[in-house]
Each structure stands twice: as structure tokens, then as C-alpha cells.
Amino acid sequence: MTIRLLSPDQELIRNIVCVEINQNEKLYSMCLHFYDEDNASNSPWFEDLTQRTHTLMQNDTPLFSGALVSATEPDALGLRTLTFLSPSAGSPAADLSPTSGAPTSDASPTSGAPTSDASPTSGEPTADASPTAGAPTSDASPSTLKTTDEVDLTPYVFDKSLKFSDPLPPRAINVELQADWIQRNSGILDLASSISARFPQGIISSLNANLGECAPNTHKSGYTILESSFESILPPSTGVLDAYPVQTPALVIEDSPQTLPRYWFKARWKFAWEYEQKRVEKLSIQLPFCPFGKDDERIHLKVQGFEQLPRFSAHLATLHTLWPDITNDAIASLKKDLYVKYQSTAACSVPFEIGATLRLQQSVKITYANGSVSGQLREIACVCDGANKRYANLSISVAPPWLQQWRQANYALKEIVEASALEGLTDRELTETTGVTDIIIENDADVQFEKLASQHIASHQRLRELLDEHSTRIVVRMRDLKTKRHLVHLLEGQVTR
Questions:
Q1: Burial classification of residue 478, based on how many CB atoms lie within 10 Å of its CB (0-12 exposed, 13-18 middle, 19 or more buried)
Q2: Residues 241-253: pLDDT tens digits?
Q3: Beta-carbon neighbour count of residue 142 at 10 Å?
Q4: pTM of the model as a whole
Q5: How far apart are CA 314 and CA 316, in angstroms?
Q6: Helix axis angle, 322-341 to 401-408, nearest 10°
Q7: Which phi and psi angles does 165 have, rounded to 5°?
Q8: Rounded CA gap, 463 and 459, in Å?
Q9: Cβ atoms of 278 and 226 closer than 8 Å
């Protein structure tokens, strides 16, 4: 059905195609459920219509006359709800005083008002606080309210309806910040010179004419052998010093002294390495919270997004500004959330027509016998259930002094210390020191000669057998680049004010 919305001057504002209309039996309110084609707009068309009396028409028949008091966001189906309130829903002028307009015993406001009688600390009102005796009398009218600045609700609060509830705050907030990323790096390592340096003369030497491939532990993760071979060379000439002999001293073979050729080699030994490791770093900090709080609250925050993180980084603290920036941002976010979470709540009831003029997040003030309270409206529940049961329950967020001081304090990360050892590849490049655990040389030429000299060699066949049995072998033991699925590094931070 189509509803025409008319201004106070009876000018057409908009045609509304409604899917449902709800109107209470006392004609105090009407709700229109409709699909708003302009719901994507940053400034909905109905924002300027509140607090003014409009007329709703179907064809030429007036349906309702009242002020727009609320509008909802689109639901899952894209439907909005507009709620209009009839001027007849308000109490007569005489009902506006704080006492004469109070609900009777069988119509007391219960929904939306905290039942706790706990009173806020340090000078906050008690549970049965009531507005001051000097409140305006029955001449007060809704037109005296200003909806732009702080609204003084003192004249309209029903007697003994003002109550407070306080959440129990913790003594301190223990925060654990967790960062996850994947450390990646790769490169090529050449160990030829390191292998040669393990031989007595600094050059690979053997009594075997051919050396097999080097025997690395290629089962270790992260390695690919690119080259593993040995090229026979002529050693440098040192004249009479004969530092690099090409013949061994004489050996007795088949009962006659004989020399054996001694071979020299140049190594070609390279492998590629690739490192990919999931890392988790956790930074624990403690924020002092409420001086008279009880116990501590634990909060775990997972930090997202490390586009600026170099792929080879093993430790965030090595990047001097990263953890401080993360921590300071987290503290700023927590201060906003905890400020809302641990505010006190003041609940009261006011006349129906007063509640209908208020808005959420509006600043309000209530003066009572022992002082006053100021805060923001968190909830407004207008109850209209018959002529004698018309009132509004209000819930007001109030920040106690200690919470305001905590929010204004500046906390910053001063120092970071390690609470566990940093594991895995911690350097940017893999070197012999970080990647090789051992290089073992078995039976170099000098050792081979000693073993042959201690044997009785009856034939050249026996000589070949002994050379095979005591052949020169080179074993390279590599470090396993990935030992765990995740590497966790624990840090503790000191936060100062």
C-alpha cells in the first residue's frame, strides 16, 4: 500500500510504499515497515523530519498525525521502520512534575532499568537518589528541552526511580599481543673452499684415482644439491720442499719396495637452500587499571597485516619501530573499548513525552540530593500501555572519575625483553656457520698411507682391496632448516605512563 507523508503545512514530503503498518490500539503510535530506495545514502531523507508533527494519508483518508521519533537501519531484507508518536500520547501539563506523573505501583517501570542498588564510588549518588527538592513544578513542559546541548532531566525524573549499577573493574589488564607471519628466504651456499681447508695441505688429496660424490645429508629439509664433483689437478710446485708430492714414500708390495701415485683434486660443491617457516611472536604487557579493582583481566589480541615486514625477518623486535607502533595502537584501541565497558550505569524513568524527545548518545544531567551526574544516553525505552502506564525508561552511561583519569593517561611501550629463546634461522643469509654442523674428512692421503704401511701387501689385488676399504670420503652434515611447524617466540614488554 502507498502512504502519503504530509508536512505540518500539509505539503507532500514523500510517497512511501509500505509492506506492513502497525498501530497500537490507543492510537498513540504508528510504525511503517517499508523498503527505502535511498537506504545507501549517507543522509537519509527522514533525518530532518524528527520532532515535527506530520500527517499520514492513505488515498484521501487521514490515518495518523504525529511526530517521527525513531528510524531503524535496513534489515537483512532492506526494510526500514519509521515510528510516529501521537501528541495525545503525552500526559497533560499537570502530569509533568516529578511526582504526580510517576507510574502507580502496578505500572512501575521495570524493563531496561538496572535493579542493583550499588552506588558509584567516590561521590556518586546512592541507589535511592532522587531529584533535588527545588525541581520545577507542573508548569514544566517538553518544550523546555534542548536536544542539541546537555539536557537537564532533573525536573522530569520520577521520584525514587534513579538507580545506579557499577561493573566490578579489574586491578590491571594483562594484554597478550600476537603476531603471525611466514619467514621466507633462499640462496646458494658454496662449500668447496671449506672442504679443501679440512685437508692437511689445504688441497684435497687421496691415493684413490677417483673420488665419488660428496655425501651430504640431503634428507634434511630445505636443500637441493646443485653440484658435487671433484676435478683432478696438478698441485703447485714447491721445488725441493715438495709440499705437494705426487708420489708416496716406498711401500713393500709383493716383497719389493714400490711407490704409489698421490692424486690432488679441486672440489666443486654447491647447494641451493630455501627457508619457509611459520613464526609466532607474543608480546605480554600489563596496564594498570582501577586502583581498588579486584583480580586481573586477560585480553588476547591478534595483530593483523605485515605488508611492511621484510620476508627474511625472524624477530619483530629487530625492526625497531614495529612492536612499539603495534603496542601503542593496541593500547589506544583498548582504552576506547574498556572506557565503554566499565562505565557505570544510571537508570531512571521520566514521562513518556520527555523520553520521546531524547536521542541516543545525547548528553544529559540529573541533579539529586547529594550532587549531580552527567553522561550519555545509552538506551531509551518508551512504554505506552494504557492511559495510566505511559513513561520512558532511560539508561545513562556515566564514567567515574578514576576511569576518566585512566583514559586520559598516556601509556607507551618502553622496553622489550626476551622470555624465550629465538629458534630457527635468525640471520638473513645461511652461512657455513649457521647452516653446516660438521664437515668430516675420512682417510685423506696421509691417513691412507699409514694404514697401508701397517699391512702386509702380498699382491696388487690386495692393494686395491685395501684402497677400497680405506677410500677417501667427505661427509657434510647440514642443519635441518625446519624442525617445527610453528616457532613461538615470547617477549615481555614494560609499559610506562
A1: buried
A2: 889 999 999 999 9
A3: 18
A4: 0.59
A5: 7
A6: 160
A7: -140, 140
A8: 6
A9: no
